[in-house]
């Protein structure tokens, strides 16, 4: 390992420690879940009329008008996503928390601050070369995992975003995002550390699952494997001359 890599590893391993001092209350599971089936779509988003092309703005407007599941009744703001419109990496988490619900922006709380640091450690930022989104666009009450019907209702929005953004890679933050995007019942420990693939429309995109930042905040032993995942992503980007 080079001196630069050693320095980056040291910085990364110290990241979560600053947050852990104050504790972390979000519930996030890393154990093997019960088996799930594929994603049934609860409703289909209408195609743009009159031949108009879809856009991120149109997706956001449709998200704002959506009442397809019960989360619409308890949200303060919808959280469609934000970041580069030509991302190298699209980060997908599970759903907004309290801070995100209040701000209408993804990953802005303590876990979001850690995510930004994690991305910065491998030369990625949401303002330059990343887009940040979630499986569901409204906050599940008490930060619980989103339910199958809620994910099904939001999934067409996420598909449209992926098709529009055409990210080179997708980084799945946590079990919920990884399982539902990859349509598998395997746990995050079995999925992380490797590139898998999804097909959406005409796109085939490599997907790298890793631990959710909130899980790292709760369990400092996850810092090192998360760092290994980030190094794997960076190495692939470097190989492709993208970084």
How would you summarize what this structure contains?
Helix content is 40%, strand content 12%. It is of the alpha/beta class and 243 residues long. It has a single domain, classed as Uracil-DNA glycosylase-like domain (Uracil-DNA Glycosylase, subunit E, 3-Layer(aba) Sandwich).
CATH architectural label: 3-Layer(aba) Sandwich
Helix fraction bin: 40-55%
Q: What shape does the CA trace take?
A: globular
Low-confidence spans:
19-50
- Main sheet record: 6 strands, mixed
Q: For this structure, what is the CATH homologous superfamily?
A: Uracil-DNA glycosylase-like domain
Give the termini separation. Answer: 19 Å
| Strand composition percent | 5-15%
Total beta strand runs: 6
Overall structural domain count: 1
Name the average pLDDT. Answer: 86
What structural category arises from helix and sheet content? alpha/beta
- The strand line-up of the biggest sheet is 1-3-2-4-6-5
Q: Spell the H/E element sequence.
A: HHEEHHEHEHHEEHH
């Amino acid at each position: 390992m080079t001196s630069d890599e050693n320095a980056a590893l040291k910085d990364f391993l110290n990241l979560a420690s600053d947050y852990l001092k104050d504790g972390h209350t979000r519930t996030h599971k890393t154990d093997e879940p019960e088996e799930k089936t594929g994603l049934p779509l609860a409703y289909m988003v209408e195609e743009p009329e009159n031949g108009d092309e879809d856009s991120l703005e149109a997706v956001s407007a449709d998200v704002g008008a959506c009442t397809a599941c019960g989360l619409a009744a308890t949200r303060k703001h919808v959280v469609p996503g934000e970041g580069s419109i030509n991302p190298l990496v699209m980060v997908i988490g599970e759903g907004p928390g309290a801070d995100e619900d209040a701000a209408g922006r993804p990953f802005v709380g303590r876990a979001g601050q850690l995510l930004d640091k994690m991305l910065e450690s491998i030369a990625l930022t949401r303002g330059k070369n990343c887009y940040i989104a979630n499986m569901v666009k409204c906050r599940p009450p008490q930060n619980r995992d989103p339910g199958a019907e809620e994910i099904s209702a939001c999934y067409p929005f996420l598909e449209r975003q992926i098709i529009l953004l055409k990210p080179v890679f997708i980084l799945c933050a946590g079990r919920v995002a990884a399982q539902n995007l990859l349509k598998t019942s395997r746990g995050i420990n079995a999925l992380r550390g490797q590139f898998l693939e999804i097909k959406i429309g005409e796109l085939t995109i490599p997907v790298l699952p890793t631990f959710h930042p909130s899980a790292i905040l709760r369990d400092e032993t996850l810092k090192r494997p998360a760092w290994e995942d980030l190094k794997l992503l960076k190495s692939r980007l470097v190989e492709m001359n993208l970084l």
